Amino acid sequence: MNEDRLVQIETKLAHQEQMLMELDDALTTQQSTIMTLERMCASMAERMQSLSGDETAAPRGDERPPHY
């Protein structure tokens, strides 16, 4: 009886260690994805900022020049 119980405990421990490694891999993948998305978001925010800055600096094509 004691031997069977020890085998069950070792089996459960092995499954838990495997699950822990799988969860660690998933977490690592998710963190990498989050970091990539954060860089993309920052890049897009910079681009939006530069585009909005360019819009105010250059006159629009459909506006009349000030001398009219």
Total beta strand runs: 0
**What is the C-alpha radius of gyration, as a whole number of Å?**
29 Å
SSE arrangement, N to C:
H
Report the sheet-strand fraction: under 5%
| Low-confidence runs of at least 5 consecutive residues | none
Q: What structural class do you assign from the helix and strand content?
A: mainly alpha
Number of helices: 1
Which outline best applies? rod-shaped
Helical percentage: over 70%
How would you sum up the major sheet? none
- Average pLDDT number: 89
Distance, first to last CA: 101 Å
Please outline what is shown here.
This protein has 68 residues and is an all-alpha fold.
Task: Characterise this structure.
With 68 residues, this protein is mainly alpha-helical. It is 82% helix and 0% strand. It has one helix and no strands. It has one helix at 2-57. The chain is rod-shaped and about 100 Å long. The relative contact order is 0.05.
Keywords:
68 residues; mainly alpha; rod-shaped
Q: How are the secondary structure elements laid out?
A:
Blueprint: H1 2-57
